[in-house]
Amino acid sequence: MFSCERIDNDTISRQLHFDSEHLWHPYAALKNTPARFLAVSARGTTIRTAEGLELIDAVSSWWCAAHGHNAPEIVEAIRRQSDRMCHVMFGGFTHEPAIELGQRLVEFLPEGLNKIFFADSGSIAVECAVKMAVQYQYALGRPERCKLVALRGGYHGDTAGAMALSDPDGMHVLFRGIMPQHYFAGRPNCRFDDTWDDADFHSMEQVIEEHLNEIAAVICEPVFQGGNGMWLYHPNYLKSLREICDRHGILLILDEIASGFYRTGPRFAMEHAGILPDIMCIGKALTGGSITLAAAAASERVARTITESKIPAFMHGPTYMANPLACAAGVASLNLFSTRDYLTNVRRIEARLRQNLAPLRSLENTADVRVLGAIGVLELKSKPAADDILRIIRETGVWLRPFCNYVYTMPPLITADAEIDRICEAIRLIAQCEPMPVQEKDDFHE
User: Fold this and answer.
1) 27 tagged catalytic
2) Is the pTM of this model over 0.70?
3) 195, 198, 204, 206 alpha-carbon torsion, rounded to 10°
4) For all residues of the chain together, what is the average pLDDT?
């Protein structure tokens, strides 16, 4: 499967030492939290390390490697494009990969979301969506409508504007001083598979009523709140949200960066509720985890209102906007999404996750089990020690990245049943570990 030769131990040691001394990693201290493994190659569902370990990627490398790693069709598309042109500024130029990807997205996205702004990353797509909403209200003569409403428990990214819309008591509390100030409604508490309770929407109604004349838009992750709690909530919440936004002239922004591209079952999570947003953010799996690219897709009404205003230009322009290599990868990725039966695949993965994870409810350290589509979450009462997690990763050959009290899997959509079984076994073993001391902190628990 892998052709890479094993790297000698001295080289591995030197490289990891340099990494530990000089390279920051996500949500980690610079020193004394080195990279756990030196990855040398990846194919399909598996990442190979320099020491010869082959690890099933149970989290799709932070949820983006939907087709598995190094999908040949995507690699070949990037190679072909690199022979022609790696990059050209999108200001004053356009190019075939951007046009083709735009055409494919207009066909692939929900009907009516046909005005595409390409961005560098999911966080930037959220920033663009927010700016669109504010500029839309400005164009209508309502400049005072420059605030947003978001949900507690949500996560939208790590840039300042995206942090400001993520859970106010979450991982970004240190940076409150630099964040724009918005309004927050309570996290939806009605679970995805529970009976809907209208009271679950009261907090949102109250926030909108109190601040109506200030609100440009509401933003949320549809059905699946990812990075701040791996929570699955009832689709009827979105139906109520769409109705109240329409009633008050507020735009609805749906962040499908994590939940889109069949992750929750249907093509996009909004389909569980049968609604459409005014602006939609996509990223992660857009290029199949090969290269960074995201987009904010707006409705005809939003785009026309901005374009026909006194300030018709949308005021944003990333240097690498519509990078040709990324657009070529996006086209190849959409080809795979369009030709493979991922809906059936995700249903199979969901059934396997339910079968394996449901029995873990009886474990002493289990607080909750949640499954939807190709998402499986085990919420623990107490988190295990980092050394125990590392040992289980090595013993099982399964790469998991727990955070806080959540041990979760969001595997590539090509993952086989036997691999799902191995992933769930690794989750079980982690859940059965002794809880780590309260004072211990590590880079497995962001």
Assistant:
1) yes
2) yes
3) -160
4) 95
